[in-house]
């Protein structure tokens, strides 16, 4: 039971600290905190943009594949090894 009481006190202290920072409008203590948050937001935006592009590619690819496409020509692969010929 003591562990639950300690956890409650710790959560309450953390909530009070966060609310205090919100009231004072000083969410970050230094410019490094602000820079790290901006970098995190840029990273998150990039990931979301890439996911959006993947979704668009998947949706558009299924639409575009129905169009008449040119048949692929078969090209020989590799290099002939003339040393193996008799």
UniProtKB/TrEMBL annotation:
Transmembrane segments: 35-60
Membrane topology (UniProt): Single-pass membrane protein
Alphabetically ordered keywords of this record: Membrane, Transmembrane, Transmembrane helix
A Gene Ontology cellular-component term: membrane
Region (Disordered) residue spans: 67-86
InterPro entries in the cross-refs: SIM_Modulators, SMIM5/18/22
Biological process (GO), any one: regulation of cell population proliferation
Any single Pfam family the record assigns to this protein: SMIM5_18_22
Cellular localization per UniProt: Membrane
Name of the protein in question: Small integral membrane protein 22 isoform X2
């Amino acid at each position: 039971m003591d562990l639950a009481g300690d956890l409650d006190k710790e959560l309450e202290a953390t909530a009070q600290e966060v609310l205090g920072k919100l009231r004072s409008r000083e969410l970050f203590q230094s410019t490094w905190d602000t820079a790290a948050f901006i970098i995190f937001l840029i990273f998150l935006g990039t990931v979301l943009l890439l996911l959006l592009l993947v979704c668009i590619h998947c949706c558009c690819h299924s639409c575009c594949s129905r169009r008449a496409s040119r048949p692929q020509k078969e090209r020989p692969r590799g290099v002939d090894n003339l040393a193996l010929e008799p």
